[in-house]
Design a protein that fits this description.
The protein is of the alpha+beta class. It is built from 26 helices and 33 strands. The strands form six sheets. Strands 6, 7, 8, 9, 10, 11, 12, 13, 16, 17, 18, 19 and 20 form a 13-stranded mixed β-sheet that branches. Strand 27 and strand 28 form a beta hairpin. Helix 1 crosses helix 6, helix 14 crosses helix 15 and helix 15 runs antiparallel to helix 16. The longest helix has 32 residues. The radius of gyration is 35 Å and the shape is globular. About 17% of the residues have low confidence.
Length: 1010
Amino acid sequence: MPGLARKVLVCAAVDGLILQPLHSKKDQLRASPLIKIKYGTASVSQTCRDSVPELSNPDSSFEAFGIVGILTVFRYSYLISITGRQQVAQVRGQPIYVVTEVALTPCTSQNDAAEAVAKTALAISNREAAHSDGDTATEDDAPRDSGSNDEAIDDVLDPTEGEESAGETGPSAIARSSVAQDVIARRGSYGRFAKSWFSRSGWTMDQKRNMGLSAEQLERANASKVEAKKGSDAAKRVPRKFPLPSDAVENDSAAVSLLPKLLRTTQILFGSSRTFYFSYDYDITRSAANPAPASTPLVPLVDHVDPTFFWNKNVLQPFIDAGVDSLALPLMQGFVGQRTFTVDSNPPQVDDAAKDSLELKDMDCDNKAAGNPASTRSEGGPESSRPTEKKFDITVISRRSTKRAGLRYLRRGIDEGGNVANCVETEQILSPAEGASDPDAKTYFFVQIRGSFPVFFTQSPYSLKPAPVLQHSPDTNYVALKKHFEWLRQKYGLMQCINLVEKHGVEAPIGQRYEENIKRLNEEEARPEDDQIAFEWFDFHHVCRGMKFENVSVLLETLGPRLEKWGSTVMVNGQIESQQVGAFRTNCMDCLDRTNVCQSSFAKYMLDTQLKELGFDMNVQKDQENAWFNTLWADNGDAISKQYASTGAMKGDYTRTRKRNYRGALTDAGLSLTRLFNGMFNDFFLQTTIDFLLGNVTSLVFEEFEANMMTKDPAVSMQKMREQAIDLSQKRVIADESEEFIGGWTLLTPNVPDTIRSSSLEEAVLLLTDKALYLCRFDWNLDKVSSFERVDLAHVTGIKFGTYITSTISAAQVDEMRNVGLIVEYKPGVTDITRVNTRSLSTSVSGASKMGREPTSGIEASEQEPQAAKEASAAVAEDKPAPATAPIAGIAEGIAEGIAGFFTPRAQEPQARKIALKALHSITSAADPMAKSKDDEPGAITRLSEMQQVILIASEIERLAIRSQPKLQAKKDGESGLIEKGDIISLADAKKNTGLLEQLGHSLKKMVWA
């Protein structure tokens, strides 16, 4: 595949940012075109070398280790580049790095870009100077930055260098010799390549020469850098404060007002969180169980990666579209860790009786590594090794899915596409230690997965142990679960589910729903028993109560034979010899703490099995603590927990030491409180940022966030849910088959009927037939009609539409063109009914009598709703009063009203009622992958404007109401109209009604959350 740029030189030109890819030695033979990011539009294109500005000033450019992508918020764009990295592992000879720091450079104007470039260059220079003063290797310098075998190509010593060094003798020559040996031993290369790769200037000297700089300019630049290092007291990190853009105005959009926080959050997420990993030559997004399809060598790495774990694809898309493959560096979120250990096929026998005796040599306080025999042998000389010993590398790679990505209580369960929250693929790799020369050595790959319950549910973030609330119908849950396991089977083969939640208490119902759906899926598919989805419910808290986590061995005794049967993927000399045939899917409520303990136990079981196959019995090794394994898996659990719950994993003390005590319990209590705090305050904006960076939402999401301090789940297709709600409401409430269905809409309405102003609005379904209007209040969690109100069109007296502002606390809520609605006024009659769908169904029949709600019982909602509507319709046809739905209550009330009516001089005229409706915003933040227009807001879903929706609905109601009222038909065209245009709640009235307490509350929430 084409080589990725190992470094990128970034500088600010007159009309755009200039990027110069700096390739490794093997890729320098091919030309490296300059890339320009145009100011304003952030378009990516190739450019000529004449556009490169003067680079004699040391602050005019900086070096990056790769490009993350371009962040665009409306007309403001920022280049995200990697300025810090650390090598954390080496797999199949290829280094893997973690991103430790990123820089954000504005692409708005030359002044802003040049200032940001200068600050970044100065910070990097100061950091290097500080490390140079300490004469220590840093996380950004070699040996961490190298180690790739293909980079150490055939390079020869410069003859002049050899002549100079040959004439030296004495201590100086000895010193040079030791440095050369160190370069060969630690950095994998020598000569000019080592000089160019490991020097501070790196390849920049040659590249700057190619860009037109003379030797004198280079000397001046280097001298200026030295002076800057000596005299600068600036921070050693790239800038972390981001002011508003120079051309931003006060009344700009919410996205721009939140831009500084967005940039800070992006910098922390991609950089200092140390949760993103990359490799220049190894595809870390794919496990051995999911290899990439065969392709030609000319296909770039970005086309090989698994899109499920490709985290920066959205922000990297401008480079991919422009065909700049050398800068398309895929990032993966998760964890990568590696340890080296030593095992002995014939370990020396240790006399148990001798363990009780204390020798003088055992009291050596300086022998700090004595407790870790593996590490001691790894670093010891030849005298400490035995012929029967062998070194291995154990590597753990965890890959977080981009589907339904996010934080603990904001992303739970499953979505309609079968994607679950906190879905993580974890691969454990056992390979010979780097440097082993055996080409026939086996490498083992063992994969397991975790993921949230594949059911729809939510939990409140305002409790330490909130009860899960199940959502949607059983059929909807089953369809989503089926999609989820179809994807898992296609990717991993056979499946074993391990459910670790409690069998009693608040966690039991969700576990039962999960088990029922798996059983139903197996019954419907009718596969052979070995091919069915296996399900094991292991009540972790019950079996391991009393902090006895070692009781997980009970689960291993049950599932151990299946682990051995399904095996692991074995690779020899780059070829797969055997394939893992199935994977374990483990979950608890959060898929963090209990899952970490069990997954590490499964991994240790497989490691022992693999080593035993190679002739090494772990039960007889001198090192029985296996600290190298425990700490590796504990670090993995902490990393995944921090990414999902913002804290380290609970029960981490057991994972690290295989012991549990009260100190660990106290630590877990503190973590619980931290998670509660983060869930209440910090997670909302971070979740918004994650959705935006992944391309799930557009910049409009920040307007929604400013109004509510939280956002909706973009994975939930509100358009689809609304269509289903309209369809379900139509079937439930329109019982008269003679009524012709005209249309249905979802609108906002006050939660208190017959009012205009209300503390809150709820989304309801409005249905229109040729005879009546139905307002259905819908339970969106249970997919049911909770109540509905039927208004005969013959009783409609007026329709008013116009501005409808209910709050003034955010800019989006005071827009008079977007906040519009309508009011339908009517006089209740005998055919107007209000029904409430509960366990004991309530019905109100509006007639000459007062509006009331008469409770009935013993009839299911689904049965009684159509019946009541049919009776009401029949009463209209025969000009009779509608019958009571509860015989006893109806007769009693009828007698009472009859007696009261006997003494009443005349019947009172029924009071007019109204239905207030507000249009939903037509432009939403949900990204539309089919959107083609890039001119205004990429990915925005556009429909009819809010005013167009209101006018359309009002016109349809008026047309049918006039047809139902002969008196209006007899009038002239100019006199028969029911529609009136006017403010429902004007902006001035809304400002008067927005209380000081509401404004202070929103300001406080914005201060805390935004």
